UniProtKB/TrEMBL annotation:
Belongs to the 5'-nucleotidase family. One of its GO terms (molecular function) is nucleotide binding. It comes from the Bacteria. Keywords: Hydrolase, Nucleotide-binding, Signal. It comes from Paenibacillus amylolyticus. GO terms for biological process: nucleotide catabolic process. This is 2',3'-cyclic-nucleotide 2'-phosphodiesterase (5'-nucleotidase family). The lineage of its organism: Bacteria, Bacillati, Bacillota, Bacilli, Bacillales. The keyword Membrane does not apply. The chain holds residues 29 to 511 of 603 of the full protein.
């Protein structure tokens, strides 16, 4: 392509890497991403590397050390800035601030606020590159407020990103040559605060680097106001490359592209990053490899299955939660089950991969009518998958999807008795749903009556009790027309 006039700036970007540290096709892994960055930096010293969020959580590589491994690797890779995505909050906001402090580059977000209205992080960064002033404004998805454990965002507010962008673009536009928004907003129609909304309502943004919807934008998109929107998929499958030319305080040309593993096949991985990733993996290996149980069958935790119906892993986990707590019934959100387990030896690593959130088992004493309300909430979008789909134990019920949301659950039995809406049941669940995660808001009025340790430990203990796990779904959740 023909260059524009003026200074050439290259901006490399990643998003939704979700701790895919190691190469696993089509994921390139961090060493390769760093190698790509090295190559661009050697060709153009005016190169920045930015991350649009969801970096510090997603595999055992990260979760075993509450995100610290990712920070170490990103420091070595030489990032200039990151915006926290919803998953950055998975270890709690205090831990997020600790991680941000460990980073030798800034974590930025204009719309993550404390209750007193002050910001948790700096809203933007102005970086001068070869005499060109680049303003980088960061925005986090307000969906974080209900997509992570509510306790992880306690005392925080995530305000309207469009309103923040309006104010800040206005504030810095005249002070900089280039305005970049680094956003974890995404482009899904299901979200109200998308990057599309921001670029439509806020003129004066040269480039919007997006994450959250895991969108692959091969050459970017250009909005009505001329903003170039870029997004690099997920899992280190791509590195985004934006070329900008800036002359006399104006962007004269801009373009976006993505590098994937085929395009990067001749690029050498960065050796220091490869060594670091390896050494972290080696350290973690003994814990992850620990054999904790055996299963005769595949335990199904596939996203589309476990968020849309009963699976044997859903049953097993709900049984484990009920068993460890001695509760009458158990309910756990399908979206909290993040992977399947193959038949054979089960390792600690397998279990943490299924349950990476560090959740606790808790009990609450719930009125029967609220148990039904909870089931209704969980199956509201059935047969469409949704994170809140209830995996249950000690209770059986049927769903009639032809009925409206809120009145499609029927034939609810607790043990061998019909559920009594007026009775009180001890319900075991995880601490995410207990505090209203996945819109289980009917639970929030009940005080916790017991805590029974970590969800992953409960699953391991229960599998050990069973000996060889050989569990099939037993039809505790059925689809059936209302009688
Ligand atoms: P993205 O990677 O695009 O940000 P996402 O995580 O926002 O994806 P999903 O993969 O659908 O979107 O995950 C959200 C679901 O994960 C929630 O609906 C919920 O079911 C589950 N979830 C999130 N945090 C927790 C938690 N702490 N405990 C249990 N389940 C959780
Ligand atoms: Zn993500």
């Amino acid at each position: 392509t023909t260059p524009g006039t003026g200074k050439h700036i290259t901006i490399l970007h990643t998003n939704d890497t979700h701790a895919r540290a190691v190469e696993s096709s089509p994921a390139m892994g961090f060493a390769k991403v760093a190698g790509i960055a090295d190559k661009y930096r050697s060709e153009n010293p005016n190169t920045l590397l930015l991350d649009a969020g969801d970096a510090v959580h997603g595999t055992t590589f990260a979760t075993l050390v509450n995100g610290e491994s990712i920070v170490k690797v990103m420091n070595e890779m030489g990032y200039q800035a990151i915006v926290p995505g919803n998953h950055e909050f998975n270890y709690g906001s205090e831990r997020l601030v600790e991680l941000a402090d460990m980073m030798n580059f800034p974590m930025l977000s204009a719309n993550v606020k404390k209750k007193d209205g002050t910001r948790l992080f700096e809203p933007y960064l102005i970086q001068e590159v070869d005499g060109v002033k680049i303003g980088i404004i960061a925005l986090t998805t307000p969906e974080t407020m209900y997509k992570t454990n509510p306790k992880n965002v306690e005392g925080l507010d995530i305000t309207d990103p469009t309103a923040e962008a309006k104010v800040l673009v206005n504030e810095i536009r005249s002070k900089v040559d280039v305005v970049i928004v680094l956003g974890h907003l995404g482009q899904d129609a299901s979200s109200t605060d998308t990057s599309f909304k921001v670029v439509k309502e806020v003129p004066g943004i040269d480039v919007f680097i997006d994450g959250h919807s895991h969108t692959v934008l091969q050459d970017g998109l250009v909005s009505d106001h001329g903003t170039l929107i870029a997004s690099a998929g997920e899992y280190t499958n791509y590195v985004g490359v934006i070329d900008l030319w800036v002359d006399a305080g104006k962007v004269t040309k801009k373009q976006a592209a993505l590098i994937d593993e085929a395009a990067a096949k001749d690029i050498k991985p960065n050796e220091k990053v490869a060594t670091l990733v390896n050494s972290i993996q080696k350290e973690q290996e003994p814990i992850l490899k620990e054999e904790v149980a055996n299963t005769a069958v595949l335990l199904d935790g596939k996203r589309e299955q476990v968020r849309a119906g009963e699976t044997n892993l859903g049953d097993l986990l709900a049984d484990a939660i009920r068993d460890v707590s001695g509760a009458d019934i158990a309910l756990t959100n399908g979206g909290g089950i993040r992977a399947s387990i193959e038949a054979g030896v089960v390792t600690k690593g397998d279990v943490i991969t299924v349950l990476p959130f560090g959740n606790q088992v808790v009990t609450i004493d719930v009125k029967g009518s609220d148990v039904v309300a909870a089931l209704e909430n969980g199956v509201g979008s059935y047969p469409e998958p949704s994170g809140g789909f209830p995996q249950v134990s000690g209770i059986t019920f049927s769903i009639d999807p032809s009925q409206d949301k809120g009145s499609r659950v029927h034939s609810v039995m607790v043990g061998d008795q019909a559920l009594d809406p007026e009775a009180t049941y001890t319900l075991a669940t995880n601490d995410f749903t207990a505090v209203g995660g996945d819109e289980y808001t009917m639970f929030t009025k009940y005080p916790t009556t017991g805590m029974y340790g970590a969800l992953d430990e409960a699953l391991i203990e229960y599998m050990q009790q069973l000996g060889a796990v050989d569990i099939k779904t037993d039809g505790r959740i059925k689809e059936a027309a209302l009688p």
